[in-house]
Amino acid sequence: MKHHTPPSDSDVPLTVGRWLHDELESRGYNLSQRGGGRRRFADLSGVPVATLSRVLRDDGGADPATLRKIAEALGVALTPLLVLANVIPEAEVQPRAITTDEALAALGVTKPAHKAAVLSMVRALLDDENEGGSDTKQ
């Protein structure tokens, strides 16, 4: 299942509501009037349905406490949502290096044997790069 991070390649400005709508639908929540997805996610996240509806419509409700509940329920980072909602300016966000375990988890690699295999392959590729190796003939 693919989970979205706020994209930057759209002609339509991305909003918290649009991002959340797309994210919930990609996770199987039916957000139509009678679909039950709003209620299900509201129950999961602890965000009242009325507040969730306002966030989805970009009609208020996207305060930091609500965004934290949404981020926690979806298992996504809070900071990009705070930036998207204009709660904090993007210029104030300092990039953070992630650990090897965080990178592997983000890729969905969780089994120890698989982690070792991926790390071995990455090390081999980096060694090849550092030695000036190339995939193309010149």
From TrEMBL:
HTH cro/C1-type domain segment(s): 41-81
CDD domains: HTH_XRE
Xref: Gene3D superfamilies: lambda repressor-like DNA-binding domains
Entry superkingdom: Bacteria
Descriptive protein name: Helix-turn-helix transcriptional regulator
